[in-house]
Design brief:
Blueprint lengths: L18 H8 L3 H24 L6 H55 L16 E2 L5 E2 L1 H8 L10 H7 L7 H18 L1
Antiparallel strand pairs: 1-2
């Protein structure tokens, strides 16, 4: 199973003037975030000053408390909606992309662990054709190749060996090939 690696950590910015599109831009431009925060506070302070005009004259401390409460009530929801919420969504998407990337990396490592290949120089005996492994032990070709790859073996006999081993029996080239195919189909049925 092939899985494509994600090419970007975040989704593209949607088109339009809605709050989500506005919030998407916040995660990408720190100066835009700063301007939005400053603008929100400035507009909220103007609104608070407008409201304070209609209140009776207060003591300086009380006026400061009313100013702080009204400013908080107007600024915090705006900052939450236009700054904090979109940033949290951006962080959540980035974490999900990281999780997806880690899952793909794990799958790739598992696939690499399952791949068996023969590489490099394989030392083989010139006389008996056994193969020496990394620990210095000699193994039959079938055992070594089966342990280091996904290949399966079946046994037959070639025409030249049949004539040499069984000189009194006439075996045609076709019959020798058929004996190999029959043994292969038998081994496939067993597995």
């Amino acid at each position: 199973m092939r899985t494509a690696l994600p090419t970007e950590d975040v989704a593209p910015i949607p088109k339009g003037g809605n709050a989500l599109a506005y919030g998407e831009r916040l995660g990408r431009k720190p100066l835009f975030l700063l301007a939005t925060t400053a603008g929100t506070i400035f507009i909220a302070e103007i609104a608070v000053m407008f409201v304070l005009q209609f209140l009776p004259e207060l003591h300086a401390f009380r006026q400061a408390v009313v100013d702080a409460v009204l400013l908080s009530v107007t600024v915090f929801p705006s900052l939450y909606w236009f700054v904090l919420k979109p940033l949290n969504q951006h962080v959540a998407r980035t974490q999900q992309a990281e999780t997806d990337k880690d899952a793909v990396i794990t799958q790739l490592h598992q696939a690499l662990d399952e791949v068996k290949t023969l590489r490099g120089i394989v030392p083989i005996c010139a006389a008996c054709k056994k193969i020496r492994d990394d620990k210095g032990f000699w193994h039959q070709v079938e055992v070594y190749v089966a342990a280091h790859s996904d290949a399966m073996f079946t046994h037959g006999i070639c025409h030249e060996c049949a004539e040499r081993l069984y000189p009194g029996i006439k075996i045609s080239r076709h019959a020798a090939a058929e004996s190999g195919r029959a043994a292969a189909s038998d081994s496939q049925m067993e597995s």
